[in-house]
Design goal:
One of its GO terms (molecular function) is glutathione transferase activity. Pfam families: GST_N (PF02798). By secondary structure, the chain is α+β, with helices and mostly antiparallel strands. The protein has 2 domains: about 70 residues, Glutaredoxin, CATH 3.40.30.10; about 45 residues, no CATH class. A 4-stranded mixed beta sheet has the order 2-1-3-4, covered by helices on one side. A hairpin with a 2-residue loop joins strand 3 and strand 4. Helix 1 runs parallel beside helix 3 and helix 4 packs across helix 5. The structure holds glutathione. The site of glutathione has 12 residues, from helix 3. Glutathione binds next to helix 3.
Length: about 140
């Protein structure tokens, strides 16, 4: 079966997880493709030529990049199913604040781990997620 939605992802990614939660909340079926971030596939490079990062949502062949933008897109396209944000503008602002806060924390964590020395390429990405969960 050909899916109209494809998610280019990397399973431990918190950015990808955010998109997976949004898709699950909406009850959408999609094809999940795990990318090797050390050897990026041609589809990822074609669909996200600017950042070359996951997650990328491909909807009817068209790419949407950046997790916050993807979540917003999902909410707008499937607006009749389980709204992702509260209807009250103040509550919506609060929800957006915490989403932004978590994104910034994730980015800082990623950068710090990139700077770590004596870490092999293969272990770098594994350590990133192990350290994150140990710190929680
Ligand atoms: N701001 C982006 C961040 C995405 C991101 O950092 N993705 C990481 C995996 S968690 C990635 O693809 N890294 C590959 C690279 O930096 O080359 C978003 O919210 O989607």
């Amino acid at each position: 079966m050909a899916y109209e939605i494809i998610l280019l992802d990397f399973w431990p990614s918190m950015f990808g997880m955010k998109v997976r939660i949004a898709l699950a909340e909406k009850g959408l079926k999609y094809e999940h493709r795990d990318e090797d971030l050390f050897n990026k596939g041609p589809l990822l490079l074609e669909m996200n030529p600017i950042h070359k990062k996951i997650p990328v949502l491909i909807h009817n062949g068209k790419p949407i990049c950046e997790s916050q933008i993807i979540v917003q897109y999902i909410d707008e396209v499937w607006k009749d199913k389980s709204p992702l944000l509260p209807s009250d503008p103040y509550q919506r602002a609060q929800a957006r604040f915490w989403a932004d806060y978590i994104d910034k924390k994730k980015s800082i964590m990623g950068r710090n781990l990139e700077r770590m020395e004596n870490v092999t390429k293969e272990n770098k990405i594994k350590n990133r997620y192990v350290l994150f969960y140990e710190k929680k």
